[in-house]
Amino acid sequence: MRFLTEYLTFNTERERDYINITGQIEAALKKSGIREGMILVSAMHITASVYVNDAEDGLIQDIDEWLERLAPYRDDYRHHRTGETNGDAHLKNLLLHHQVIVPVTDGQLDLGPWQQIYYAEFDGQRRKRVIVKVMGE
Question: Name one Pfam family in it (predicted).
């Protein structure tokens, strides 16, 4: 079995952002040379997420509005007593989760017809990383 580990770095201009990283994951797969296996894609921060969904601008706006309704920014989160101001970002992470595992079949990401891999940032404007771990043969 072969393994490849790479790190993607993000520093978004906005507090919340949704970035399609499918191309970067495909590049890591190609570099690894595996034909069968899987790829773990995981945000290394608890105020960001990685998820799989449709690459459609309206849906991305719907996801953002949904997350803001479920975990809105507020000044009164208990977490803010520590001096932080990102309690909502931690809750948004819990809703979308921090990682995905994508199958690799015949040297390709084995995604559905509309599926893409996204990095979601909820507490941006600072440097953050995603680990990409390719495993297979």
Answer: YjbQ
Tokens of 33: 């040379």
Q: What is the pTM of this model?
A: 0.96
pLDDT tens for residues 55-111?
999 999 999 999 999 999 999 999 999 999 999 999 999 999 999 999 999 999 999
Give me the domains of the chain, ranges plus CATH numbers.
2-136 (2.60.120.460)
Q: Own/partner pairs for 91-95, CB < 8 Å, 24+ apart?
A: 92/47, 92/49, 92/67, 92/120, 92/122, 93/43, 93/46, 93/47, 93/48, 93/49, 93/122, 95/49, 95/67, 95/70, 95/71
Phi first, then psi: give them for residue 106, nearest 5 degrees: 55, 40
